[in-house]
Design brief:
The chain has a seven-stranded parallel beta sheet with strand order 4-8-9-10-12-13-16. The chain has 361 residues and is α/β, with parallel strands linked by helices. Helices cover 30% and strands 20% of the residues. The radius of gyration is 20 Å and the shape is globular. Bound molecules: iron/sulfur cluster. The site of iron/sulfur cluster (SF4) has 8 residues, from loops.
Length: 361
């Protein structure tokens, strides 16, 4: 079927300044394939003598950030990282193919969850990681215990600590995982969300309908907060291509920011998504709605990484919420939350009536 939605040209894929490969990573075929891909792209490959990734960073914080962000490390995920954790409200289990992301979003949630210099680490022992997944089948406690979502089967979320599509040209890990789920004859679903758009390697895969891609989108007024990502129009075009290839799809509208003019901005965004997905037969579309939040720690990290950012992380319209882990985060106050939620549910019902809202948070 010819798409009525225009093809959008893609930005150049990320080319790291260097790729560092640990000794253990080189013992895995997937690790060696990543080395070959990187070398073919002209990336300098550093083979480390052991398994520690040490980068000699300059004292200047801006240059140290740039050096770390420009580095891809190929490592082996240890057993502790292969022990999967629940990840509410998205999925039963968190499945990490990598940690870190090459983009520069000034609200990035990774600032609160990953420690140390922002080196992107990808896992060489992908086979071992995937081999462990059947142990988790039928043991989910998040979507598997939700009447509205139990039909998804046991769900695995691959975008908690990375944007897997951002790295796909270097690793091939996402394609391999989608194909693995495609062969897995079980009630299960792989999920990933992305601010990138090069889905060419994915559309030809035998996915078996067991992977849901979501495009993570925000209005044009926040484009300046998403340096290094694909334009939103390209993400929506990519999402359409995935639906045309038979994948279930979704939108992650995140982070929702209550800045001046937000009604108009998000209304235009929802209308743009509706236009991009118009006319698709048997559309299976979910929507996740995630409001902007931050912690004292993530704010301090983001302030140091992006000192000129105009993102509002003051106390205005905010309350402090205590998490079940005993930490505190700043979320919008009840009145702002209510207005946002009412607006989104109404606008989505009007423009994307076939969509299923999975959660609001
Ligand atoms: Fe963070 Fe996602 Fe932006 Fe990457 S694309 S920097 S993971 S918010």
């Amino acid at each position: 079927m010819a798409s009525p939605y225009p093809e959008i040209s893609l930005p150049r894929p990320w080319i790291p300044r260097r790729i560092m490969v640990t000794a253990s990573a080189r013992t895995w075929p997937h690790g060696r394939r990543i080395m070959e891909r990187a070398a073919a792209l002209g990336v300098p490959v550093v083979t480390l003598p052991g398994d520690r990734v040490l980068l000699d960073l300059p004292d200047d914080p801006r240059r140290a950030y740039a050096e770390a962000k420009g580095t891809l490390a190929v490592v082996v995920a240890p057993p502790s990282k292969r022990k999967l954790q629940p990840i509410a409200p998205s999925a039963d289990w968190r499945l990490d193919l990598a940690e870190g992301c090459p983009a520069h979003c000034s609200y990035c949630y990774l600032a609160g969850s990953l420690k140390g210099p922002p080196i992107t680490r990808v896992y060489a022992n992908l086979d071992e990681i995937l081999h462990g997944l059947p142990d988790y089948l039928g043991r989910g406690t998040i979507t598997s215990r939700s009447m509205a979502r139990v039909a998804e089967g046991t769900t695995f979320e691959a975008s908690c600590y990375t944007d897997p599509l951002a790295l796909e040209h270097l690793t091939g890990s996402l394609s391999a995982t989608i194909a693995w789920f495609g062969r897995w004859q079980a009630e299960t679903q792989l999920r990933f969300t992305t601010k990138f758009a090069d889905v060419a390697p994915l559309v030809t895969l035998d996915h078996g309908g067991r992977t849901r891609m979501r495009a993570s989108i925000n209005p044009a007024q926040h484009r300046g907060h998403e340096a290094g990502t694909a334009p939103v129009a390209a993400r929506l075009s990519a999402l359409r291509r995935m639906a045309e290839a038979g994948y279930p799809i979704g939108l992650t509208i995140a982070p929702i920011i209550a800045a001046d003019g937000w009604e108009q901005a998000y209304g235009d965004l929802i209308d743009a998504a509706a236009a991009a997905l118009a006319g698709l037969p048997d559309l299976d579309l979910s929507i996740e709605l995630i409001t902007h939040r931050f912690t004292a720690g993530s704010k301090a990290t983001l302030d140091s990484w992006y000192p000129g950012s105009s993102l509002n992380m003051t106390d205005a319209n905010r309350i402090t919420k205590r998490t079940k882990f005993g930490t505190e985060k700043q979320v919008y106050d009840a009145d702002t939350m209510r207005r946002l939620r009412t607006y989104f549910e109404t606008a989505i019902g009007r423009s994307l009536p076939q969509a299923r809202i999975l959660y609001w948070t």
